[in-house]
Amino acid sequence: MSDAAQQHAAPGASAEMPAAMAEIKSQSVDKVLEEMNRLPLFMTNLDETDGEGGENLALEALKALAYEGTRAEVAENFRQQGNECARAKQWTDAREFYDKAIAALEGPQNNPDSGADGPDVIKVELDEAEEAKKEQATKEACHVNRALCNLEKQNYRSCIIDCAQTLRLNPLNVKAFYRSGTACLALDKILEAADACDRGLALDPSNASLKALKAKVGTRRDYIASVEKTRRERETNISSERATLQLALKSRNILVRTTKSPPDLEDAELKLENSLDPSSILNFPVIILYPTHAQSDFIKAFSEKEKLGEHLEYIFPLPWDERHEYTVDNVEAYMETSVGGLIKVGKKMSLGKVLGTGKPEVIDGLTTIRVVPKDRAADWIEEFKKRKGIN
Q1: Residue 361 belongs to a domain with what CATH number?
Q2: How does pLDDT run across 264-306, given as a tens digit for each residue?
Q3: Do 204 and 171 touch, CB atoms closer than 8 A?
Q4: Which of 14, 171, 301, 354 could form a disulfide with 283, with the two C-beta atoms 3.0–4.6 Å apart?
Q5: Is 200 inside any structural domain?
């Protein structure tokens, strides 16, 4: 073996790299990936430029191929790509391909030999009737498949529109009836959903999907009818209860008034024990105010048969009454009248009789009673009159 050969075969030695490979070897990994991404075969994201703001010719050539051929051919190509995405449940991508297919069908017709020239080129005449038939079939398929994409993405109104477009092209398309019925059910358009099922089953009586959908529509219709019936009954009962309460108050000569800003009484309310019997016992939410000490107590249900003194007996002693001024015998109670004055409330008189005098008002369903110590009553009354402008 010659010295040159031995030198060539020496361990660790290698042949020189081609110039292009040597250039790549000198670049960083990120730069190599960036360059590869500009080649359509290796793209992981769409690089529309040459990397420096110019035109990516390889990409533009690839994109141009998608629009080679007649409208029907271009649209069919996009439809097939849409179908592949739909099979992979890539609904957004599939819908975009169907969009492109439909747009291609609505664009100008391409002559399949428009760019060809020469003695060996055979001119092809388009069969317009056959092309129109292909276009209609492709357009129908794109609309009904785009309806599926919109259905899966819960774009129910768009799904219904696509189904309507499909049925304009082919009134016998059972898939369009099924998908529009499903979308209508999702929107609680029960009559429309039922109609879609009936029309679809008229074309295909044994269609299992439509039968199942019709059963769902029936179940939903029954549920909605039940809810609506319950709502109407509740409204009727509320109306009857309100009328009965008004009758009960009027028959007892009790004045009531509502304001624009009623207080929050939580679950307390002015009501009859039997809401549909005006002669049953009335219960009132009552707030007891202690104006000289800026304190209060709330009684959720004060029966018209009960007396103020009975409630004061279990309320007293008051935790904040350090001077022990508040005892049943040492306090007086007052209610404001409808004209802004005061009436004294007998502690041994039932609430119903006090309210039945027709002088105090029940405002927003709440009865207010003010309780003050006897030795402070005169001063408090005088202050109340001044505040009300009463001489």
Answers
A1: 3.10.20.90
A2: 999 999 999 999 999 999 999 999 999 999 999 999 999 999 9
A3: no
A4: 301
A5: no
Query: How much is the pTM?
Result: 0.62
* Any domain includes 360: yes
Residue 108 pLDDT level (bands cut at 50, 70, 90):
confident
Q: How far apart are CA 193 and CA 85, in angstroms?
A: 28
Q: What is the pLDDT of residues 30-61, one digit of tens each?
A: 766 666 555 554 444 545 555 555 565 444 54
Region 307-321: what's the mean pLDDT? 97
Q: If you average pLDDT over every residue of the chain, what do you get?
A: 87
Amino acid of residue 76 = E
Tell me if 325 is assigned to some domain. Answer: yes
Instruction: Write out the two tokens for 56.
Output: 């990516």
